[in-house]
Amino acid sequence: MDTVTEKELALAIAKMGGIGIIHRNLSPDEQAEQVRWVRRKINYGGMIDKPITFAPDERVSHLQKEIESHKWTFTSFPIVDDKGQLLGLVTRDELDFVEESNPLLSDIMKPRSKTVTAPEGTDSSKAYAIMQKEKVKKLPVVASDDRLVGMYVWNDVKNDNEKRDFFSLDSDGHFLVGAAIGFAESDIERAELLVNKGGCKVLVLDSSHGACKAAKDQLARLRAKFGNSVEIIIGNIASYDSAKYLLEGDHKPDGLKVGIGPGSICTTRQVTGHGVPQLTAVYEVWRAVRDVGYHVPIIADGGIRTSGDIVKVLAVGASGVMLGSFLAGTAESPGQTVIQNGKRFKTIRGMGSRSAMAERSGSRVRYHRNDGTAQVAESLTKRQQQKMVPEGVEGLVEYKGSIEKVMSEVLGGIQSGFAHTGAASVAEFQKRASMWVQSFAGVAEGRPHDIYNITH
Predict the structure, then answer these.
(1) Could you tell me the pTM of the whole model?
(2) Which residues touch 213 (CB under 8 Å, ≥6 apart)?
(3) Active-site option among 24, 59, 366, 369
(4) Of 266, 354, 360, 364, which residue is the catalytic one?
(5) Which of 326, 332, 391 is nearest to 356 (CA)?
(6) What is the pLDDT of residues 97-154, one digit of tens each?
(7) Is 440 helix (H, G, I), strand (E, B) or coil?
(8) Phi (first) and psi of residue 149, to 5 degrees
C-alpha cells in the first residue's frame, strides 16, 4: 500500500512509540532519503528545515497575500538576502502594528542584531532551553556564515520535549523507521542504500507470498552483508507450515508478518483463491513459533478495522499490528485529498491494484508480475497493462484528521480491552484471554442497533 507510510507519517508514528515502514514504490535513492529524513528528526526535532522566507524589499501586502492564498496558519517569517543570510524576523507582533501604510518588510522586521538565534546542529532539547531562557517563540538556526538553515517554533519544541518518553528510538538515538524491499538480488543494492545512506535499522522483506526459497535466499544475503546490525522482518505468510519453513535453517528472521488477503484493498482471496482468515492465520503462526522454540515477534498485517480487532489478534498471539487503510485517511498520509458531496476523503490503493502495478515495478515484483529479469521498467505499455491481473483495488477513505487523534482513540480502546481481562501487559493478556466462535447474529448484536443518526 503506497498511500499510507512515507516520511511524514513515519515520523508521526515514531513520536507515538510505533514504527513506520516506508513502502518500496519509490526509487532506491528516494526511499533511502525518506528514511534518513525521519531518523535525523530526533536531532532536529521540531525544527522546520525549510522555513518560508521573504526578501527585505518585499512589502507587507505581498506577505499578506501569500498568507491568504496559501491559507497558512502561521505568521512568522525569516527575512533573508539573496545569499540566504538572515537579516531579521517578521512575526505577528510586527504585522499587527501595520495600519494604513504598506511598508517594506525591512522597515518593520526585528533586525538580526535583536533576533535570538541558535547555531547549526542545535537539537530540540538545546533549542527548548534557549527558547525558555530567552522567552522567544521563534528560534532561527544559522550556519557559521549566518546562512539560515532552519527554525524552531515553541509549540513544536514544547510538544516534543513533553512527549519524548514515548518516542521510538533506535540504538543510535534516532527515530526508529523501517523500509520494505523485495526478494531479487538487485534489491541488495536498495538495501545497501537504505542502510548505508539512510541509516535504516529495520528491513521488511515484503511479498504477497513470503514463505518461499527466494525469501530465505535474500535473508541469507542480507545476513552475510549486514550481520545482525539490521533487523529483518519477512512476510507475508498465513499458516503453520509457512512460519516453520522460515524459522528453519541457519538464518532466522527477526519478525514474521502475517496476512494474506485480509486487507481492505486486497482481492488476493477472490482472484487466486488463496488466503486464511486473519485470526486463524495469526494463531497458526503463533503455534509454529511456539513449537519451533525460537521466539520472534508476530505482526498482524491487514483486517484491522477497530481497536477491538487489535485486541483480538493480540489475544491469539500477535506481538503487534500493521495498519494500512486504518491510517490512510489521516492528515500525514501521502494520499491525495478529495472533496465529494461536501465531505473530505483521501485516496487509497493497494500495492496490487491495477494502477499501482502499472506505474510501479515494486508492486509488480511484490505480486510476482515481473518478467523475471533483474532490471524492470518502472512503468508499463498499454498492452502490458491490459494483460496485468490485479490483486487489489483503489478507492477513497474518509478523512480522519491527525494521526495523533486517531491513535489516541485506538490506544484507549486497547487499554479498555486489557482492563476487561484484568491484564496489564500483552503477555499477561495472552495468558488470561479466552476465545470462542461468534455467530453473525452475535456480531450484529455487538454493534449499535435499533437507533438512527448514530454519531461517535
Answers:
(1) 0.72
(2) none
(3) 366
(4) 266
(5) 391
(6) 998 899 999 999 999 999 999 999 898 889 999 999 999 999 999 999 999 999 999 9
(7) helix
(8) -120, -5
